[in-house]
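DM from R.C. (forwarded with permission)

"hey, sorry to bug you on a friday — could you get me a structure for this? deadline for the figure draft is monday and I only need the backbone to look sensible"
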Amino acid sequence: MSYRDGWAALNLQFSPKIPRTEYSVCSYHWELMQQVTGIDTSCVENRPAAQLAFRRSWDYGFLWATRISRGELLEAGATPADMGHAVYGEDASGQGDFRPVTTNPYADPEQVYALDPAAQFRFFERSELIRKFEEHYREQQALVPDAVAMSGVYVTLFSGLIELLGWESLLLALGTDERRFNRLVDSYYHWIRQFFEAYAESSIPVMMVHDDLCWTSGPVTDPAWYRRVIFPRLKQLLEPVLAAGKRVMFTSDGRIDCFFRDLAELGIHSLVMEPCCDLEFFAREFGREVGFVGGVDCRTLMYGSRDEIRREVERAMRLGREYPGFMLAVGNHLPANVPVERALYYNELYEELAYR
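My reply, with the result:
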């Protein structure tokens, strides 16, 4: 009854079982999937079946997914920077994910200020965007038939600027001339809004909105800047989606504790956060009005003793018994190098403790 549990959490209703999800474990940890499902994942052709069987076995309450990302920027005529990618794992087709840094077209702040997405980037036909979202949603439903599926936007606002500029150019331009940088933020907002307006017209009941606002150490600049520039525009982006009656989930990397209230005031229904955040504080202050997802740190699974892993899961599940909107996850992914026996023990603990 995974769908029942996930949907209840999104509506702040208690269900018999605390729901859970996991992120990239099902895209990379082939050894774990083989152990759980009995399917030989060394054969690439077997991997889609193993992924499907694994998600069912681990009882996903929802499947995290977005549709609009770097591809749409490229389609629209943007020339985004490429920060590269470190080795994380091997994808479903057997390809590694290492990518060296290759491009930085905005090394000078003047090149950043010359960007005007609303004037320079393509706007898509509304029907085309609705079709993209609907097709993606059906694909997600097929991946986990008994779980809450969704689509959404990855390059929402601050994340879109990171994708376009890369970190170094973004920070240099913001620090050099905030007024001119803010004009870029506003222009990007007017371009990205088309996807939110289209989503509002889709039939999909849940939207995932991804916007990485912070580093692990916290905000990258004065929080007052976010409140002047980012949060008012995020609120405007969400308005048509919320007005259409969608449930909105919001994901941000980094330590976002100082923005908990700002995020809650956006009107979102659930916040997906990393273990560097104070989950207990969020629960006490906002957990009766906004759901939240996370709770387990992959570093504990990687390096902790069995007792430490148990304490980590027990701490999270106590929140799940008290707050109906809680959903368990390894909040910074469960990567491919976590030993299989530790991942299996984590799942045993979930099943032991999940029933309210």
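R.C.: lifesaver. The first helix runs from residue 2 to 10.
me: no worries. Strands lie at 151-153, 206-210, 214-215, 218-219, 247-251, 270-272, 291-296, 326-330.
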